[in-house]
Specification:
With about 300 residues, the chain is mainly alpha-helical. The chain is built from 13 helices and 3 strands.
Length: about 300
């Protein structure tokens, strides 16, 4: 999707690829997708009103003008924040796909009332999910290894399916990850992840790959590289089998990884390093999750809760 010419970049031509990305990688529901559609349609109308339909011309000042226009309409901070989140996600996607070179929304803060907490699984729910795949079936053994690695290292789905066999050291207990912006990081993995990855590598991957040659650790049933769509579907099936009623997406594993570390007392900077966040403010949202958990425990068990 890389931009090859200097032609104008219009919002409409990138909406379908963006919504496909939201479904596959973020696991958003139809209701959330409809909200994003409405939000981006409003933003497109605003750009038309200021004669700036070419997205490559949109800058931070334009985004601030959009926020001011919403405030003048009497919209509350939560509504303004939600609409800005929709626009922010869209521009991040365009930069990620090399359609744009700069993100004009990056430096614009969300109105404080609009902060939302990421969805996470409890430790008990996560254990049920990790144990859901069949431990004797080829695909089950592969899925157990994928789930353990995704949760154990806090990987994005794009990072998970891009891990190469040479990136995993079962002896040393770490995985090398190529994150956003081609930034490399080293993340430790636990004993269970090491065991399940070793089982998959030794007993399953050779049978699935057959004569095909490629460097990726995880493969599909036909021996080719694992896809986002395939992993997303398998994850959904395992969540149902585990009796989890919450919406579960690949990002849920990453959110749960960070939240469980902080609940256990991990340092915020260490979690930031393992997640590959450039700005610690991005990681700080998980401290709110940990605080909410503590408040819930206090309310349930303290005599004066």
């Amino acid at each position: 999707m890389a931009r090859k010419t200097a032609r104008p970049i219009y919002i409409d031509e990138f909406l379908d690829p963006y919504f496909h990305y939201l479904v596959v990688e973020k696991g958003l529901s139809n209701n959330t997708l409809e909200a994003y559609t409405r939000d981006l349609a409003r933003f497109a109308s605003f750009l038309e009103s200021i004669r700036m339909v070419d997205l490559s011309r949109v800058d931070t000042a334009s985004v601030l003008r959009y926020l001011i226009s919403m405030q003048k309409q009497g919209l509350g901070a939560r509504t303004r924040a939600r609409r800005l989140v929709s626009v922010r996600g869209f521009f991040r996607f365009l930069v990620q796909e090399n359609v744009l070179s700069k993100d004009p929304v990056r430096l614009v803060d969300l109105p404080k009332a609009g902060m939302s907490l990421p969805g996470v699984l409890s430790v008990e729910e996560m254990e049920r999910l990790l144990d859901a795949p069949d431990p004797v079936d080829r695909l089950g053994i592969r899925d157990r290894a994928m789930l353990e690695l995704a949760y154990g290292a806090g990987l994005r789905i794009s990072e998970l399916i891009s891990v190469r066999t040479q990136d995993v050291s079962l002896v040393a207990g770490f995985v090398r990850v190529m994150g956003k912006g081609s930034k490399e990081r080293i993340v430790p993995i636990g004993e269970v992840a090491i065991q399940r990855a070793g089982d998959y590598l030794e007993n399953v991957r050779p049978l699935m790959v057959r004569k095909k040659i490629h460097p990726f650790l995880f493969v599909g049933q036909g021996g080719g590289p694992m896809t986002r769509q395939n992993f997303f579907k398998r994850l959904k099936d395992h969540a149902v089998a585990a009796g989890i009623r919450k919406t579960v997406s690949p990002h849920t594993l990453r959110h749960s990884f960070a939240s469980h570390l902080l609940e256990g007392g991990a340092d915020l900077r260490v979690v930031q390093e393992m997640l590959g966040h450039t700005d610690i403010a991005t990681t700080q949202i998980y401290t709110h999750v940990a605080r909410e958990k503590l408040k819930e425990i206090h309310t349930r068990f303290h005599p004066r809760g």
